[in-house]
Amino acid sequence: MSTMVMRSMGTHGRRLLAMQADGAAAAGGCSLLPCRWRSSLPQLDSVDRSDEDSSGGDIDWDNLGFGLTPTDYMYVMRCSQGDAGFSRGELSRYGNVELSPSSGVLNYGQGLFEGLKAYRRSSEMGGYTLFRPEENARRMQVGAERMCMPAPSVEQFVHAVKQTVLANRRWVPPQGKGALYIRPLLIGSGAILGLAPAPEYMFLIYAAPVGTYFKEGLAAINLLVEEEIHRAMPGGTGGVKTIANYAPVLKPQMDAKSKGFADVLYLDPVHKRYVEEASSCNLFVVKGGAVATPATAGTILPGITRKSIIELARDRGYQVEERLVSIDDLVSADEVFCTGTAVGVTPVSTVTYQGTRYEFRTGQDTLSRELYTDLTSIQMGLAEDKKGWTVAVD
Fold it and tell me: Modified residue N6-(pyridoxal phosphate)lysine is at which positions (predicted)?
């Protein structure tokens, strides 16, 4: 993990990652539950295997967007105050979950989510791959500490993700057609009236087959700089993946889409001069042989794709800086692109700021295209994974 990311976590976050994770997240002045995440999870022997090798319904794999397609199974485990440990995780049929009207997540937004993907390997290799799932697990641990919640260990998180993929294997798109998007949730499911951590928690994973995130597909997108509404503030929760970070960006995002833009870029709330990130992805700017991305200093989510792209760009000989990126740096860039689990590596064609439209280089001979190829080749098993980023699911 980079020095910048570790710094943004603060003392409690660094201590949390250094703990021998037996499942208990206890720090930061929060009175957390005395729970341990059990590793005795159910295997696929408990799941109906009759349709596991058939294709996922009548999906048109060539026109797969980023929408919810209900799959077969989800993974759930719970913890209640006073329990000796978490109840055994279960793979159950995908469906609605029951929550108290006074649950912590519904009343106070005590919840986190993650996003990662499973890719189908070639027919010669067989099986599936996950991309750096341990990073998602660690990020959830850091977020859980901030939100006064227990969190699974890295091993338990990855095991649960694997079980979810195998149970929904028929929904993994053919190689090159998309991926199985996996959504782990950690929520305060217990009933609570006063403002306090919930007395019960639920860890849940569901999955859905997806293609490209933006309607433009792999084509370059157009962004609008938002000057009045801000995604995060210093001292807030912008650096963790809490569910409370996302609903506030819906209004500016929908307003931008109504004007023909794909998404919104947010500025820092103090100076209103420095670019932070888009609604659901990180940002990179390229000028000459130098690449810059806004530093994750607490208001910007430390993206796993972002972290990987920094390393891949440096492997190609580029100087990559994690620093403040001003609006002047942005509009004067040669090339701009976004990164994220959902969006992958998406080139930016134009950015509109204060009514002026700025254009950037796109196409085959760009760094974003090179990095997109490098990244997806590793993710799909088309190139040797020299970095140990992928995890096999067989």
Answer: 241
Domain 221-379 has CATH 3.60.15.10: no
Residues found in the chain: 394
Q: Which residue in 91, 156, 176 sits closest to 380, CA to CA?
A: 176
42 or 88: which leads in pLDDT: 88
Neighbours of 270 (CB within 10 A): 11
The domain spans of the chain are 73-210, 221-379
> Cα–chain-centroid distance for residue 332?
29
pLDDT in tens, 355-377: 999 999 999 999 999 999 999 99
Quick check: is 241 catalytic?
yes
> Which of the following is catalytic: 117, 162, 241, 307?
241
The amino acid that residue 103 corresponds to is S
Q: How far apart are CA 133 and CA 129, in angstroms?
A: 10
Report how far apart, in Å, the C-alpha atoms of 393 and of each of 81, 169, 314, 366 are: 34, 10, 29, 33
Fold of 73-210: D-amino Acid Aminotransferase; Chain A, domain 1 (3.30.470)
User: E strand or H helix at 137, and its extent?
Assistant: helix 133-146
